[in-house]
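PROTEIN FOLDING TASK:
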Amino acid sequence: SRLRKDRMAHGSLDLDMPETKIFVDEQGYADRLEKIEHDESHQLVEEFMLAANEAVARLSRARRLPSLYRVHDDPEPARLLELRESLAASGIKVGDLSLRREFTRLLTMLATHPQGHTLRIQLLRSLRKAEYRHTPDGHFGLHKRDYTHFTSPIRRYADLVVHRAVAAYLARAGASAPAHDLPQVTRLGDHLTKTEVNSAEAERESIKVKLVEYFDRELGREPPARFAAIITDVRAHGFFVELTESLTFGFVPADLLPADRYDLDEAGPALTGRRHRRRYALNTRLE
């Protein structure tokens, strides 16, 4: 708790997003969805992992080891300005987001905002992607000068590269050659950044496939399931929703709404029925 409190006090940004875990039946079909929150047990593991990663990065920089660093460059000012304008359209007014205190204030606001999840995704898209690099260029999100990926060598090749660099340093005591030379780790950093993007895209696509499979099965069940949702965007021909438990997005066409003619009120924004005055506005919660 003290580690986490100190980290946040020194400007680290809480960019963790809740995840949807998909449970499958014996045949492998998606059968149940569950939102996974980053609770205290996750945070306990995370804080020690962060401390280990930072310590190893500091050692690598101090000893000038040919190794990899996890780098997160500062965001582009133009993208932050676009984000600020987009947030204003959702009723959230912020100052200069290039100031860390203002960025932190925004994250605090989004934590309790009805559209918090959707807007946090938008915020993450406005930031640069983290990458692997042979130079210790710092980490914007964590607000650390020294950072690398060290703690997961059994599932990330980048961590294994760092383990080898540290192991060679400890073994040689200044005598034998390092595990890699600088051109090697430069090439590895570029390659691993690309493969990370590929694997992240594959993971997202596989989740989409299973979500479609899950909801396709739900359509055939009686009685039909009911899902809590929130309206995240309103258009003339319908509105977008986010299912709050599974964090799934979808579109509801206006012609599927209760019988009426619906007009778009852009000031809201909202769709309003002409006869019954039923209203579907941005941030409205519904089933």
Summary: The first strand starts at residue 19 and ends at 24. The mean pLDDT is 90. The first helix runs from residue 2 to 9.
